[in-house]
């Protein structure tokens, strides 16, 4: 029976139905904002309406949103953005001179001196130049051409645009795109939307989610039989797994991409979020160029960054960029044409990006306070990551790999066989079943591992370690630490769940 | 095999915007002016975009003060800002996660903003109910339109999905359709009758699709872009009945609903007209209506915020639409501006006098510009402008002499692009050519934004008149 008939709405007369709509859109899912989050929002509504539950607040650990969890924005950035929004404030001596100078420069580059004017679709030129300079400094002087920089509405927009450009062919020649399992579900959503072939390569959980080339080869060779593999996506530092790739690994991936004639997409939005001893962020571009001209002049690549993560946490601005390397000029012309359909990325996001790549310098008035804030934020994030890993490893039945970077943990849970059966009987994926129960009983919202992909028969969830920031808030009023909150509630839940499904008949 | 074969054919087949050659030359000229090259003008006036701020219109103070206070809350201490600005900023920050404009929002947008927008829609439509769950806020109305088109267009279907679009039409929409693999089915508006929509023409267009594609949707722009018409209630209801009868999904691009100035003109939303028709059509005709913070008196194009309201859609389809919108969220600052747009300062508010002054000034300039544009353009025998009733543009028709058309062809340019290029070179004014939007074969038009300060428009008209006389003489 169709949904409409169930709802009592007459089936005849609907022009747009599930049967005739674009089949690709039906395959689009985005677990980070999927059914479990929708249920969480519903529960929050019920709580507001006074419905009694075993908890008073839903802890939303499903999304990497630092400022939602109480992380403060960087003062300097907000000062410049306020000045750009309301330039009369340039007369106000409450604002430091370096903030005013940057605001003036940005406004001079805007149509009509207003951030409300459209910009060029590739992004404001002087900002692209600043981004190129930032990349050069970051990568030890390796040149970056502003014409290869495309500003975007968050990194997601740029990622989807490149995929839109590259996905082509029919049937067995349809473009295949390699993506890590587990992956950030924007990729699987975009691939479904574009009807591209998703080629899964598995990260090695037993080795701290490392990537190995043998697995890349296996995945590629298998895929060659039913599609035309052309793109290799890698997220570094990883999401949801948090692993930071070693330099050797990056070289291996580049070599592999060259051998197999693959376009590399390097998602590097967490590049400042590296915590573990001995781990360091190596940009793909830097490694590429250090491998010599045989690689640096041939491997085609796009790298992505954004203003949403790192120490900025400004997700709501939708700022981001991509740098394209060694792209064929004719293809690049097509890319430029494609981005023009969006008109332009949000100008405040472009302005913010300019500040991120052009922060206060040692000789400027805002430098000291800026560095203090930046250091504090990164330290807090590192601490939360460590704490989260530690806590989850104390819960029996849950194992958590070291969190080397990014903002999440992706612990593995052992589910009793009876729980798995019960889940299946209810038509639910086992880790979704687990997470839904956790949500209903403890008010903790996580994203089940099935939303990111995982090896068959294993179960995980993603927990945004940022949440520890918000739990700090509770620790003063409720007189216990975040450690306790999670271990008590979570651990109690998990223990009970385990027992229930072991001894239930 | 060329590398170009290895990219998406939909992207490859996208037409390069006609404006591209003009933009490139504009940048070159700006550079030449900076270097001190002598020209008969000191700066290029760019009115090729529907971008009031770029054309010199000032942003509204209230919305910018609220944005500044939301960005940097230290501004709330001290007495620089009015009480109502602070209150609004505080209220809006309270609707953001973590009290910050830097957080993500829910999939469809900030819930309280959706509520404000739905209330605005109800007020606008004389009480016709509007449910916030049917509204999705997105980074620009075109983004929302692309998402809805994505759901409608099955690029693998045979025959391919068709969408009826007006001629002339907003250029970005045409390009979006191509990129999605849909077929654009043109229906021609009748220029001599003020760009009226004739039902026989809609029928003809629909018939022309037989055997070519499967038309599923009808795209309407009201008020028009580029042509400055405002559809009558009667016309809207005829279209609605047509869509119901022919089983077409209605896409109503209503982004200029706040720009209506024609003396006899009134904006009636498709939703309202649908409700007024009554059951069963009012409960069944599927409609998507688009609006934005980019147009109207606020003109905040750079904030990239718009929304779509979906009416009478199948709930199962709505679930998929929700998934599609969930993958990229809308900028928060734009939603703040949107909230101010649908809830502007009211009489009695401290900020109201300034708000009134600023908006009245913009409206007066616009009215003046409309009058002057019609006057000046229609004074030329080979230039004609239909009455401007709404929207942000003039789209006058050029009667080009055969010699000019010939010269254009030799240069490998469309005749109206050729005219615009010469206008740019010699007069430092950037318009866009009618070719960009579609026009009847053998006719030529130019489009320019009329939401500018009045003195800017005078300067534009002065330069245009001088150029036009010269150009016509040269090619007579």
Number of helices of chain A: 19
Q: How helical, in percent, are the residues of chain B?
A: 40-55%
- Which sequence of strands runs across the widest sheet of chain B? 2-8-7-6-5-3-4
Instruction: Give the CATH class of the largest domain in chain A.
Output: Alpha Beta
Cofactor (chain A): pyridoxal 5'-phosphate
Transmembrane segments (chain A): 480-503
Organism (chain A): Poecilia mexicana
Function (chain A): Catalyzes the reversible transamination between alanine and 2-oxoglutarate to form pyruvate and glutamate.
Can you give keywords for this protein?
heterodimer, A: 505 residues, alpha/beta, Aspartate Aminotransferase, domain 1, Aspartate Aminotransferase, domain 2, 2 domains, 7-stranded mixed sheet, 5-stranded antiparallel sheet, globular, B: 476 residues, 17 helices, 14 strands, 44% helix, 13% strand, transferase (chain A), aminotransferase (chain A), ALAT1/2-like (chain A)
Quick structural summary:
The complex is a heterodimer of chains A (505) and B (476). Chain A is an alpha/beta fold. Chain A is 44% helix and 12% strand.
Account of the 3D structure:
- The complex is a heterodimer of chains A (505) and B (476).
- Chain A has 505 residues and is α/β, with parallel strands linked by helices.
- Chain A has two domains: 30-63 and 375-504, Aspartate Aminotransferase, domain 1; 120-357, Aspartate Aminotransferase, domain 2 (3-Layer(aba) Sandwich).
- Helix content of chain A is 44%, strand content 12%.
- Chain A is built from 19 helices and 14 strands.
- In chain A, the strands form three sheets. Chain A has a seven-stranded mixed sheet with strand order 2-8-7-6-5-3-4, with helices on both faces. In chain A, strands 9, 10, 11, 13 and 14 form a five-stranded antiparallel sheet that branches.
- In chain A, α10 (247-259) links the parallel β5 (228-235) and β6.
- In chain A, α3 (35-48) packs parallel to α17.
- The longest helix of chain A is centred in the C-terminal third of the chain and has 28 residues, at 367-394.
- Chain A is globular, with a radius of gyration of 24 Å.
- Chain A starts with a helix and ends with a helix.
- The model of chain B has no long low-confidence stretch (mean pLDDT 95).
- Chain B is of the alpha/beta class.
- In chain B, the strands form three sheets. Chain B has a seven-stranded mixed sheet with strand order 2-8-7-6-5-3-4, with helices on both faces. In chain B, strands 9, 10, 11, 13 and 14 form a five-stranded antiparallel sheet that branches.
- In chain B, α9 (233-246) links the parallel β5 and β6.
- Chain B has 17 helices and 14 strands.
- Helices cover 44% and strands 13% of the residues of chain B.
- Chain B has helices spanning 9-12, 19-34, 61-71, 83-94, 111-124, 141-152, 171-179, 199-208, 233-246, 270-277, 281-284, 315-326, 332-342, 352-379, 402-410, 415-427, 454-474; strands at residues 45-46, 135-138, 161-167, 183-188, 214-221, 249-253, 287-292, 306-311, 383-384, 393-394, 397-398, 429-430, 432-433, 444-449.
- Chain B starts with 8 loop residues before the first helix and ends with a helix.
- In chain B, 54% of the residues are buried.
- Classes of the chains: A alpha/beta (505), B alpha/beta (476).
- The interface between A and B is large, with 92 and 91 residues.
């Amino acid at each position: 029976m169709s949904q409409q008939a169930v709802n009592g709405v007459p089936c005849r007369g609907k022009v747009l139905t599930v049967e005739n709509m674009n089949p690709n859109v039906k395959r689009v899912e985005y677990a980070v904002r999927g059914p479990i989050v929708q249920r969480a929002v519903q529960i929050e509504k019920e709580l507001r309406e006074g419905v009694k539950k075993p908890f008073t607040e839903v802890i939303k650990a499903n999304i990497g949103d630092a400022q939602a969890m109480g992380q403060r924005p960087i003062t300097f950035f907000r000062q410049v953005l306020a000045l750009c929004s309301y330039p009369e404030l340039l007369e106000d001596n409450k604002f430091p001179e370096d903030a005013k100078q940057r605001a003036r420069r940005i406004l001079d580059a805007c149509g009509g001196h207003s951030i409300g004017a459209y910009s060029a679709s590739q992004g404001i030129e002087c900002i692209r130049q600043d981004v190129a300079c930032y990349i050069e400094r970051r990568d030890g002087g390796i040149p970056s051409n502003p014409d290869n920089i495309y500003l975007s509405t968050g990194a997601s927009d740029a990622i989807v645009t490149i995929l839109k450009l590259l996905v082509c062919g029919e049937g067995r020649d349809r473009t295949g795109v390699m993506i890590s399992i587990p992956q950030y579900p924007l990729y699987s959503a975009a691939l479904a939307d574009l009807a591209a072939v998703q080629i899964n390569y598995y990260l090695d959980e037993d080795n701290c989610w490392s990537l190995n080339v043998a697995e890349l080869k296996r995945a590629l060779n298998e895929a060659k039989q039913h599609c035309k593999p052309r793109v290799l996506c890698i997220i570094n530092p990883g999401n949801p797994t948090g692993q930071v790739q070693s330099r050797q690994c990056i070289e291996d991936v580049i070599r592999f991409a060259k051998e197999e004639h693959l376009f590399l997409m390097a998602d590097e939005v967490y590049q400042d979020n590296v915590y573990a001893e001995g781990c360091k962020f190596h940009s793909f571009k830097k490694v590429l160029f250090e491998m010599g001209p045989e690689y640096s002049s041939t491997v085609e690549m796009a790298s992505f960054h954004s203003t949403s993560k790192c120490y900025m946490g400004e997700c709501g601005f939708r700022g981001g960029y991509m740098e394209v390397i060694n792209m064929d000029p004719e293809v690049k012309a097509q890319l430029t044409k494609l981005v023009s359909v969006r008109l332009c990325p949000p100008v405040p996001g472009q302005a913010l990006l300019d500040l991120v790549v052009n922060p206060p310098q040692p000789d400027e008035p805002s430098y000291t306070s800026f560095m203090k804030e930046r250091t504090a934020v990164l330290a807090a994030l590192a601490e939360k990551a460590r704490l989260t890993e530690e806590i989850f490893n104390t819960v029996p039945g849950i194992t958590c790999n070291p969190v080397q970077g990014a903002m999440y943990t992706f612990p593995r849970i052992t589910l009793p066989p009876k729980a798995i059966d019960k889940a299946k009987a209810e038509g639910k994926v086992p880790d979704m079943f687990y997470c839904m129960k956790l949500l209903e009983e403890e008010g903790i919202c996580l994203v089940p591992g099935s939303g990111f992909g995982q090896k068959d028969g294993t179960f995980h969830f993603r927990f945004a370690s940022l949440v520890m920031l918000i739990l700090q808030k509770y620790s003063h009023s409720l007189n216990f630490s975040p450690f306790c909150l999670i271990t008590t509630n979570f651990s109690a839940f998990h223990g009970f769940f385990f027992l229930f499904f072991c001894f239930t008949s | 095999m060329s590398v170009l074969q290895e990219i998406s054919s939909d992207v490859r087949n996208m037409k390069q915007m006609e404006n591209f050659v003009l933009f490139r030359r504009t940048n070159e000229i700006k550079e030449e002016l900076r270097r001190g090259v002598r020209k008969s003008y000191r700066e290029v006036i760019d009115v090729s975009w529907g971008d009031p701020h770029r054309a010199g219109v000032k942003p509204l103070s209230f919305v910018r003060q609220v944005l500044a206070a939301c960005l940097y809350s230290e501004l709330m201490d001290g007495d620089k800002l009015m009480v109502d600005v602070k209150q609004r900023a505080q209220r809006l920050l309270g609707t953001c996660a973590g009290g910050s404009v830097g957080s993500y929002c829910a999939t469809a947008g900030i819930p309280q903003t959706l509520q404000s927008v739905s209330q605005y829609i109800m007020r606008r439509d004389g009480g016709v109910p509007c449910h916030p769950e049917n509204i999705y806020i997105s980074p620009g109305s075109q983004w929302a339109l692309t998402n809805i088109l994505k759901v409608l267009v099955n690029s693998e279907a045979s025959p391919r999905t068709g969408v009826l679009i007006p001629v002339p039409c907003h250029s970005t929409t045409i390009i979006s359709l191509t990129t999605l693999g849909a077929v654009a089915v043109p229906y021609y508006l009748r220029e001599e009758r003020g760009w009226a929509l004739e039902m026989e023409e809609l029928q003809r267009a629909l018939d022309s699709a037989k055997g070519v594609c499967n038309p599923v949707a009808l795209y309407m722009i009201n008020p028009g872009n580029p042509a400055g018409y405002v559809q009558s209630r009667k016309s809207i209801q005829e279209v609605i009945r047509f869509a119901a009868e022919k089983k077409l999904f209605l896409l109503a691009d209503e982004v200029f609903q706040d720009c209506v100035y024609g003396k006899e003109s009134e904006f009636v939303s498709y939703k309202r007209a649908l409700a007024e028709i009554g059951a069963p059509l009012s409960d069944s005709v599927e409609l998507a209506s688009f609006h934005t913070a980019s147009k109207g008196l606020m003109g905040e194009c750079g904030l990239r915020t718009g929304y779509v309201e979906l009416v009478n859609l199948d709930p199962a389809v709505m679930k998929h639409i929700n998934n599609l919108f969930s993958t990229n969220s809308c900028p928060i600052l734009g939603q703040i501006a949107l909230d101010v747009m649908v809830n502007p300062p009211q009489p009695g508010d401290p900020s109201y006098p300034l708000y009134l002054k600023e908006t009245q000034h913009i409206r007066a300039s616009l009215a003046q510009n409309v009058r002057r544009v019609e006057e000046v353009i229609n004074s030329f025998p080979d230039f004609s402008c239909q009455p401007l009733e709404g929207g942000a543009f003039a789209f006058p028709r050029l009667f080009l002499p055969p010699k000019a058309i010939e010269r254009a062809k030799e240069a490998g340019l469309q005749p109206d692009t050729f005219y615009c290029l010469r206008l740019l070179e010699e007069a430092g004014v950037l318009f866009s050519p009618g070719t960009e939007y579609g026009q009847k074969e053998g006719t030529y038009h130019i489009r320019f934004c009329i939401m500018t300060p009045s003195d800017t428009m005078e300067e534009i008209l002065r330069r245009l008149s001088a150029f036009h006389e010269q150009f016509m003489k040269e090619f007579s």
